[in-house]
Each structure stands twice: as structure tokens, then as C-alpha cells.
Write the C-alpha cells for this entry.
Amino acid sequence: MPGPFGAESTTDDVLAGVDLTGKRILVTGVSAGLGVETARALTAHGAEVVGAARDLDKAKAATAGIRRGLTLTQLDLASLASVRACADRLNAEGRPFDVVICNAGVMATPKGTTADGFETQFGTNHLGHFVLVNRIAPLIKGGGGRLVNLSSAGHRFSDVNLEDPGFTTTPYSEFVAYGRSKTANVLFAVAFDARHKGRGVRAAAVHPGVIQTELGRYMTPEVIAQMTRDITKAQAAGAFNWKTIPQGAATSCWTGVVAGAEEVGGRYCEDCHVAKVETDQAVRGGVQPYALDPERAKALWSLSERLVGETF
């Protein structure tokens, strides 16, 4: 395997020499930022990519430079009706996927709810993908298929709250809500991996890094500046650096098509490697142990089924 790769590696670095001809990959959130770059890089190496986006006109404009290998499908993760319709279309086509990359998401939104009444970030980032992936799970190829959930170092802001997922009894905080949803992304990967590795399908979560994309559109310049100061202060050495979009999408590509299945299955990856479990909040990297807890993952799965009214 080529490498080693790190924080500054780009999509072109990790995919150098990789031939993805014949591979079919689903990527959500292809209307901006990391989703567009992920689709570009994968198609450039021969993959056929199905890009899902809420706003198809925006996605068409954003992906105009991708000349071949990309088709688009409509998906609004904040509406389970849209999620189910998307899954129905993909299942009706019956064409399998080698990799599913759950890239779409929202961050630090004002308090609100999805079309189905779920807290916006938990409902969009976790429950929408939970329903989509489970409904199309039979399409993910056995003997090598893979699921990649985009999480974040923001999972450190909070564990999931299984008793009050919608902030009914607890005060709402944009970043606590974001942290809950990003922890849920990791726990979903852990549970999905445990359920499907017997047929050769593995799942992992990734932290792409901190990148200036539309994900932060709800954050004021003052909030971004304070976040940068806080991260820099928390690091043991060195100033905080933003990643470029190609650097940010690299870990998704590495985890999805480059790294070994046993290496990443059930794990959390960052900077194109498997992250260490880290409990010290003064260390910026690593994954909190609660995000990899298999019992917590099972409990979240059960809660998610109850909330969406489906059993998988």
C-alpha cells in the first residue's frame, strides 16, 4: 500500500496509482465542498459515482467540471420522505455499490427541527443517513463493500443523549447538538460494521479535518475566530491550520478505497490513518472512547429505529 499519508495529503496523493474502474460509489452532499471534491477524485480514477444532493440545480452547477462518471439523485436528509424516495429509486435500479460515503451534513445550526420533528443536526446528520444506508444495505457488495460516515473532531463536544435526543428537557447548544450528531455518526459506523462484517462489508467513520466550506455557513466570523483560538490554545504545540478541501476529502478516499478493510473496520480515522483512542481534551487528535463503545452503538441503533419507525 502506498504511503504513509498524513494531514497534508490530498485526494490526488492517496489515490495516486489507484484504478477504480468498475467501482460504483454513492456520495451524499455533492453540491459543495468535500462532496464535490470526493466525487471529482473518485471519477478521475475511473469510478462511477452517484452523487446525492438536496438541491440538484446547485449540485449540477458545482459538479460541472466533472466530465464523466457522475450521475445525480435528489436527497434531502432532513426529510425522511425524501430519504425513503431516494432509497426506493436506488433499490429499483438494483445496481450494487462498492462504497457508500455519507458526506452530507449540517453544523452548528440554530435550534430547529427537521420535517419529521427531529432536532435538526441529529435528524439530518444521523437519522437521515441511518435510514438511507439501512434501506440500501443489500446493495452494498458483500466481500469488500464499505460504508464511510463523515464524523468530526466535534464529536468531543458531546456524547449522544439517549434519554433526550431532541433537547426537550436540556438547554439547546449549537455545538453540543453538533457533537451529539457527530458521535452518532461514529456509533452508527461501529454498529453497522458489527452487523455486516460477517458478509464482508465494513464500516468506518472519518474526521476530514477543519476546512472552510459551506458546512460552517451558520457560524459567524466571531464564532469561527473564537473556535480557532480555542483549538490553538488546546494544542500542545504549534498553531492551528485549516485544511484545504482536497486535504479534507483525502481521508474519506483513503478510508473508502485505499486502506485495508481490517485496518479501518469499526474504527475512526483522521489524517489518513486510524486514530488513537484519546481521553485527554488537551490533545486535538484522537477519538473519545464513548464514540467507539459497542454497547452505546447498539443502544443508539435501537433508539434510532424507534424514532424513525423502522426496524433494520
About this structure: The chain has one domain: 11-305. The mean pLDDT is 92.
